[in-house]
From TrEMBL:
<dbReference type="InterPro" id="IPR006860">
    <property type="entry name" value="FecR"/>
</dbReference>
<keyword id="KW-0472">Membrane</keyword>
<protein>
    <recommendedName>
        <fullName>FecR family protein</fullName>
    </recommendedName>
</protein>
<keyword id="KW-0812">Transmembrane</keyword>
<dbReference type="Pfam" id="PF16344">
    <property type="entry name" value="FecR_C"/>
</dbReference>
<keyword id="KW-1133">Transmembrane helix</keyword>
<feature type="domain" description="Protein FecR C-terminal">
    <location>
        <begin position="312"/>
        <end position="380"/>
    </location>
</feature>
<dbReference type="Pfam" id="PF04773">
    <property type="entry name" value="FecR"/>
</dbReference>
<dbReference type="GO" id="GO:0016989">
    <property type="term" value="F:sigma factor antagonist activity"/>
</dbReference>
<dbReference type="InterPro" id="IPR032508">
    <property type="entry name" value="FecR_C"/>
</dbReference>
<feature type="transmembrane region" description="Helical">
    <location>
        <begin position="77"/>
        <end position="97"/>
    </location>
</feature>
<dbReference type="InterPro" id="IPR012373">
    <property type="entry name" value="Ferrdict_sens_TM"/>
</dbReference>
<feature type="domain" description="FecR protein">
    <location>
        <begin position="176"/>
        <end position="267"/>
    </location>
</feature>
Length: 382
């Protein structure tokens, strides 16, 4: 079986060969230990290539079970995950202890592009935000304008003079990354992958409104100021608040713009028609449908729309096409879908900080397709 193990480790193994390998691995304890030892050796010897033995074993166990679950187009991933955990419990009672020390390791077989977080300052200069030893962000004159945090920038701790002119900074977050900004008034903004935020350098008391411009997705925790509303402009919509917590998703490639309220209250309206407002209370969402220009309101599970902040993907009746867009942003990849007949298939499920291969393998267990990875391009075929 050594040749099949090598094929698995080199990612050249076929479906039929996987089944043969699985049958051998699970036939007795000795074979199981041999298989895990080979994976562990590869993991230790290939740290520079980010080969993770734990993830490799999980992927093997998921992939070999594809053929069992083709009977349902709509797969409840949570139910599948319970089945998968049961398989692991019986098949790898030693595996858990063996790899337990690597639980926090991050790995992927999809290489990350060199896209970086870039901020364009009010003075026109552009800077790459590198989380290095530098503790502050400065403008071209050397003035300190923000402090660096572990995964973000804080503009609230720096004294900024409130000039007569309102000037803006703009930050761009590439695919595969997230970023937090604390604005000068203390408002906290978590930006999702593929998003940009244009915001005033100084949200001083002289400004009548506190207005920012979002493209993409962000979660806002707005500092209360009864005299000065906070307004998020998201393409066709404006979201007006005094102080609250809410999520806005406004990617140009998506068919709608949504605002989901977690705490407080917000007014949502088309910026071309501010008289038609929708007032949201917690757990409600306003969605603007771009195709027909309608603004709707519905009650939702807010976890579904804020889970990205915890590296969790919750799929609640999303189409295959919508899922692929989310995966592209979160994992910094390009996906070519040649299985267009799957685009409108609907799914439900939940993943916690999983590699993209694991997610695709799980989906493929109910809606069969194959995929190939080359550099940062994933090609899906039926």
């Amino acid at each position: 079986m050594q040749d099949l193990i090598e094929k698995f480790l080199n990612r050249t193994i076929s479906v039929s060969e996987r089944k043969r390998l699985k049958k051998w691995v699970l036939s007795n304890k000795e074979n199981l230990n041999t298989f895990k030892k080979e994976i562990n050796n590869r993991s230790e010897n290939n740290l520079q290539h980010h080969f993770d033995g734990k993830d490799a074993f999980k992927e093997f166990m998921v992939a070999v079970d594809k053929g069992r679950t083709k009977r349902r187009k709509k797969l409840h991933f949570v139910r599948y995950a319970a089945l998968f955990i049961g398989i692991l419990a019986t098949a790898s009672f030693i595996y858990v202890a063996q790899f337990n020390n690597n639980d926090n390791s991050e790995s992927t077989h999809v290489s990350n592009l060199s896209n970086q977080i870039v901020i364009t300052l009010a003075d026109g200069t552009q800077q790459v935000i590198a989380m290095d030893d530098t503790k502050v962000l400065t403008d071209k004159k050397g003035n300190i304008i923000a402090e660096k945090e572990s995964a973000g920038l804080d503009f609230s701790k720096i004294e900024n003079s409130s000039g007569a002119n309102l000037v803006f900074n703009e930050v761009y977050i590439p695919y595969g990354q997230k970023f937090k900004i604390t604005l000068s008034d203390g408002t906290k903004v978590w930006l999702n992958s593929g998003s940009s935020l244009r915001f005033p350098k100084n949200l001083g008391t002289s400004a009548q409104n506190r207005m920012v411009y979002l493209e993409g997705e962000a979660f806002f925790d707005v500092t209360k100021d009864k005299k000065r509303p906070f307004i998020v402009n998201a393409e066709n919509l404006d979201i007006k608040v005094l102080g609250t917590q809410f999520n806005v998703s406004a990617y140009k490639s998506d068919g709608n713009i949504s605002t989901t309220l977690v705490e407080g209250s917000v007014n949502v309206y088309e910026n071309s028609n501010p008289d038609t407002k929708i007032l949201l209370s917690p757990s409600y969402q306003a969605a603007f449908i771009k195709e027909n220009g309608t603004l709707t309101k519905q009650k939702v599970d807010v976890r579904t729309y804020t889970s990205w902040m915890e590296n969790r993907l919750i799929i609640d009746n999303l189409s295959f096409e919508q899922i692929l867009r989310k995966l592209e942003r979160a994992h910094n990849v390009s996906i070519i879908n040649n299985a267009e007949s799957l685009n409108n298939e609907m799914f439900k499920g939940e993943f916690q900080n999983e590699r993209i291969e694991t997610i695709l393998n799980t989906i493929a267990s109910s809606t069969p397709f194959t995929y190939e990875i080359e550099n940062n391009v994933i090609t899906i075929s039926k």
